[in-house]
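Hi R.,

As promised, here are both runs. First protein below:
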Amino acid sequence: MRIQINKQLFAWDSLEDSPTLKTIQQLLDVIPDEALLAQLEASRGKGRNDYSVRTLWGVLVLSIALRHQNIEACLAELRRNESLRKLIGVESEDRVPPKWVLSRFLEKLGTEPHLTLLHQVFDALIQRLGESVPDLGRNTAGDATSLNARRRKTALAEEEQEQGLPQASGGRKEYTDDDGKVNKVVEWFGFKLHLLVDVKHEVSLAYKITDTKAGDGETLPAVLADAQRNLPDKRIETLAYDKAADTNAVHQLLSAASIKPVIQNRSLWKEEHEKMLPGHDGNSNIVYDEAGTVHCYDRVSEPIVRHKMSYIGYEPQRETLKYRCPAMHEGFECPMAKFCNANKSYGLTVRVPRDIDLRRFPSLPRATMKFERLYKGRTAVERVNARLKIFWGADDGNVTGSRRFFALLGVVLAVHGAFATLLAMAPRYEGTLGQTRLSPIAKALHGKIKPKQQPPVRRKKPVSRERQELLQFTA
């Protein structure tokens, strides 16, 4: 895989539609699956070993990486593609595992401790990228999306619940307009996938699967904690989310972690649209609205005019937001200036303590251009969701049972992290005749990854001449 030098570090549009054998081999090399495969082999014990664990794991990875519609399509390609079979240690066409073996393997992969180790494979990929890419995770965004699945009707569902896995259930999401009227309804049956992604690079940093009833604000702390463990300390600076995460608990959590919330405000004030700032009486002309925007009133003009005060900055030592007179700051005439500014050259200054309401007064006010720019980065989550659901088949809808669904989605996220690593490691070239170069990040990643040894291929025992004659005679 070669990428033009003017492309972004994670050039998702440069992924090959049909990956070459070299790319597939590199993909298998970058996935840190040693601990997971060792545990799967140990759990097998002295049971049947007709198909090795590494072969079955390779089939799952290939079915997702090669964008097959289902596992049966991947098995069909393995039967006719000898070179592809050798990459995962299958020596002949008749040694390709049947479908039911993969189904049982997926069931096994969804049990503990294998499911936790599978999640650690994804975490290890992101930790490796976080150490090599200096700005990975600096500006983040989160969201939840619907995933279709089927529910079991047998006693196995009770076993999955005892394991702590939620069951597929019906979900419903309503979209409203500015007037609060519902204009769109989405219904599905399955689970919810909560993601936290990097806005610039569109790389998933952490994920969590829940039932359809789990709220975004309730799940965000756990997802954020996973992302903080996967990234260097204090790497996350901003977090963008929709109004589903606009709760006091979320704002308190982000404030304690020194993360600037870029969260859309929920409209809860039905009658009163403005309030006086604490410490200001009825003679003051300083108010704030539900979104935390501070205004001042020109009570001399007829009619009375309201101005949005100029935001100067956040003072972390004082934990206050600083505002000044908009007339002095922006250079226009205001009849109230001589009363408010009291001959001050810089005008009236208002400091708003954030502890009045952390949800109302975030460290990055909503009525700023920077907030609007960072909030637009939330679309990165939608693009990541589209790749997971459409490109790699996370929203197949034909997976039955929580164990299989959690296992399959874990493999999909691992493939996502592995492809992100390949894109960062890919050599860059200038034009068709330019010299291919490795970036410093690619060199650092190459130093962290060691090629894996090819799985041993089991050869058939040679048939003796007498045995051949006996077979011909019996035939």
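And here is the second one, sequence first, then its structure tokens:
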Amino acid sequence: MHDLVVIALSAPVLIGIYDKNGRLVEKYSSEEKSSEALPRLFKQLMSKYSFGNIVYANGPGSFMAIKLSYIFLKTFCLVKNIRLLAVDAFYFNGNAPIKAVGKLYFVKTSEAIITKVFEAPPESVFRLPSRLTLEDFKQENTPFYGISAVG
């Protein structure tokens, strides 16, 4: 039994496979959109692994990527009887600002996740952790959008 981490908020989509000791054993990456990358990658993964837990970055980030990832992963976990866990995306980028819209970025303070304007785009790179500690993640796995969808 393995655990899986999915970061599908922007390109590249990152997926990490972790062994029973929480060590990263394999990485997958795709520059495709989440809607194309997730089904393709999961088809590959299901022929090779069985999973006990799936952890995903539930936001903030691209509204559509968050929504699509949640629906895909929640459905997959319900059908396969796998536990879905979540954590905010700052866990995977060292708490760097995350693009919202225009010059607006999400920033995590000690009290909350807020938005802040940056004139120059700050660097924000998502990385899979080398070790997975399931206690770091929460069972409340609904998406965190941060701002309302633009209509």
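A quick note on the second one: The domain at 2-91+126-136 is CATH 3.30.420.40 (Nucleotidyltransferase; domain 5). Let me know what you think.

Best,
J.
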